[in-house]
Specification:
Length: about 325
Amino acid sequence: MKRLIALLLCAICAFGLLTGCKNSESESSGKLKIVTTIFPVYDWVRELTAGCGDVELSLLIDNGVDIHSFQPSARDIIEIGSCDMFVYVGGESDSWVTDALEEKINKDMTVVNLLDILGDKSREEKFIEGMSGEREEDPETDEHVWLSLKNAEIFTDSISDGLKKLLPGDKKLLSENAEKYKEELNALDKSYKKTVDSSEKKTLVFGDRFPFLYLTEDYGINYYAAFSGCSAETEASFNTIAFLADKVDKYKLNTILKIETSDSSIADTIKNATKSKNQKILTLDSMQSKTSEDIKNKVTYLSVMKDNLKVLKQALK
């Protein structure tokens, strides 16, 4: 991978010399070029830089491809290597980033790794009772860190600090934006806590992968799922279906959940294996495959988390 990236960069840079092109659009526009990998990070930076006129912000994974299967193109590598600030998650799905950054053109780039920021507060991916697939002896760190509003507050501060160094003339505005955004995150966090604390039920069943470890641990929610958060499995075993259907019956759950990127086939199979067979199939949005079209439609991190809260209220009734 490293050799391939180096060759791509050499070829593109050579082409740039022949055509007289500059390394990046930001170099010609004079704007601060910021590249983010996933939608939640893009939206945080967008909120923090609101009102800062000299910023060019881009979302790398913007076509609905899941973070777990994304592979950068030559254009992506150049965009990253020549930007002023690069913000990414840092989990196993981002293993390609190491090689890309070693070949970067801009040696003064500010790099923000969310898992590095989180440090000891990160969690190992869990393989719990009932899941299909094999338990890993050395589980990876769960990379779905953005699905915690508490984590989002931590990231807001760190990203804001990085931006202040790059935009010294906008320090006051950046601080005001960060404080305002953290207030919104904190208010929504309290709404989540109030909802869970006042709910009769405290258990969820997912007929799907489970990327919501951080969210459920924040509020003391129990869960069972067909697969772990980063699992590549697509077919749940008979034992998993029977196990999850039994949990739906045991806890008298009125919903079975799935994530936004998959159909409801497994959830429907679980539903049909329950005694009542009358549960609703609802979707919690993990924001792993948002698109540029979603951004045009004014979808935001907070709007998705508010919609998820509405689903959670139904699921815990």
